[in-house]
Amino acid sequence: MLGVMPFRTGTVAFARFRVSGGPHALTPSVLESLAAGVMAESGVGSPPEVQAGWISGRHVFDTTFDPDATVFGDSALFAIRVDTNRVPAEIRRAFRLMAVSARGPGEDRREQEAGRREVDEEAEARCRAELSAGRHRRSKMVPVLWDVPRRLILAPVFSDTLRSVLAEHMRATLDASIEPLSAGALAAEHLSASGRSRDYEDLAPSSFTAPPAATLEREGRGDGPPVPWSRLGPQPKDFLGNEFLIWLWAQGEIGSAAIDTEGGPVALVFDQSLDMDCAWDVAGRQTLRATGPTRLPEAAKGLQNGKWPRKAGLVLAARGDQWTLTFQGDRFLVTGCRLATPEEAPASERERTEQRLASIETLDGVLVDLFHAFLERRICSGWQGERQAIREWITTRTGRRATAPVELPVELPV
Question: What residues are paired with 53 via a beta bridge?
C-alpha cells in the first residue's frame, strides 16, 4: 500500500509536534541528514518487521532531497516511508497445513511432537523465504512539514506506533526529539511562556451541567466531570480542547459573529459532523452527521446529558482564506481539510505547493490563535460568569432540524 501526498495535493490532515534538539535553522546540512537517513537495504535474509527511512515525499521511491522540492522558506517538506514486512495469518496457517498434509501421522506421541516441530519449522522457513523475496511488504508514506526555526512539525501521525517510528528516526538521523502538542500540552506552553504555570496547574474540568443521577449514585459526589479520555491519557489537561469546542459552539449562538484573536477576527460555523462523548463517563457516545449538526435536538440533548464534543466539522474563515475541516479538540488534530481553490491557477508545481503550504500554516495559526483566545478567557476571573452563561444556554436550548446549508456569519476582510 503506497501513501498519498496530502500536503502537496488533496485533502490535508495533521497533528502538531514540538521539536527539541536538532538543527535550529534550515541549512544544507539538514538535507544531507535527510539523505543519510533513507531506508537501508535489508541485506541477506528476511527483512525486519518494520523499516523506516526518509523520502522526499513526491512519491514513495524518491530519495532526491533537492532544495526545489524540499525547501519552502524556513520549512522543509519531506516524508517518512514506513515498510511493514509481515506474512498474513491466513498464509502462515496455509503453509503449516501444507506441511502437515505432506506427512503421515506419527506412530507414537514422541514422533507426533517431533512432527509438529518439523511442521512449524517448515512453515516458518517458507515465511522467511516469502519475506526475503519482498512479498507481503506494505509501504506507507507519511508527509512531514517541519518549520525548523519555530521547532514545529505538522504531520498526519495519529497512532502511537507511527509516532514512535517518526520519533526514533528523528532522534537517530537528526539528533532531535518530538512531543505531541495536544490541547493540554499547547496550553502548558502558552501559559508557562508568560509565567502563568500555576494557572495551568490549577485548571480542572468545568461543570457545564449538573452531574447525571447515575454519577451521584455511583460516586456520591457532585464535583467536576472526570473526562475519562483526558484523565486516563498521556496529557490529563487535554479536556481543555473539548471545553474549547463547547466555547466555540456557544460563541456562535450567544456570542459575537466573529471571534477576536491576536491574528485578527475569525468566523466559523459547525457543519456536517459532530462526535460527542460523556464527560461524566455514564451516558456513552453519539455521532451526528447532518447539515449544521449543532442545531439538531440530539445535539442539545447530548449537551444537557453531559456529553462534550470530541470531534467536529468546522468551516473557518480568517485572514482572507477559508477552510473546511474536521477538528478533534482534545488531541488538536485536523483531518479531511479542504483548502480553498486559488482564484488564479498556479504557474508551476512549486508555486502550487507554496500556495498550499501557506494556507496550511495559516490554518494552523488560526486554530492556535483561537485556542489562545479561549485560554485567556478560561483563566481569567470572569470565567465563572461566562461558564454560568454557557450553563444557562445549554439548559434552555432545544435544537432544531437544519433544512438549509450553514453559512459563515460574517464577511471578513482579506
Answer: 81
pLDDT tier, 138 (very low <50, low <70, confident <90, very high otherwise): confident
**Half-sphere exposure of residue 54, counting CA atoms within 13 Å on the CB side?**
26
360 & 216 share domain:
yes
Residue 75 near residue 102, CB atoms below 8 Å: no
Q: 123 and 200 share a domain? A: no
Tell me: do 189 and 77 sit in the same domain: no
Domain extent for 373: 185-396
CA atoms of 235 and 187, how far apart (whole Å): 11
Q: Give the whole-angstrom CA distance, residue 111 versus residue 124.
A: 20
CA gap 17, 164 in Å, rounded: 12
Instruction: For the beta carbon of residue 62, count every other beta carbon within 10 angstroms.
Output: 17
Do 270 and 294 touch, CB atoms closer than 8 A?
yes
Residues 277 and 387 in one domain: yes
The confidence band for 402, taking pLDDT boundaries of 50, 70 and 90, is low
Domain count, the chain: 3
Please determine, for residue 111, whether its predicted confidence score (pLDDT) is greater than 70. Answer: no
pLDDT at 220: 45
**Count of other CB atoms within 10 angstroms of residue 284:** 11
Residue 2's pLDDT is what?
46
In a domain, 249, yes or no: yes
Is 401 contained in some domain?
no
E strands, 214-263, are 259-261
Over residues 215-242, the mean pLDDT reads 82
Flag whether 330 is in a domain. Answer: yes
241 and 358 in a common domain: yes
Q: Does one domain contain both 127 and 190?
A: no
Report yes or no on 156 lying in a domain.
yes
pTM as predicted: 0.88
Q: Between the CA of residue 51 and those of 37, 43, 72, 190, what are the distances in Å? A: 12, 13, 28, 36
Q: ∠ at Cα 188 (166, 78), nearest 5°?
A: 25
Is 204 in contact with 52 (CB distance < 8 Å)? no
Instruction: State the SS3 of 156-173.
Output: CCCCHHHHHHHHHHHHHH
> Is a pLDDT exceeding 80 seen at residue 409?
no
pLDDT at 98: 85
First to last CA, the chain: 41
C-beta neighbour count of 68 within 10 angstroms: 9
- DSSP alpha helices (H): ranges in 133-238? 160-174, 183-193, 197-202, 213-219, 228-231
Q: 3-class SS at 268? A: strand
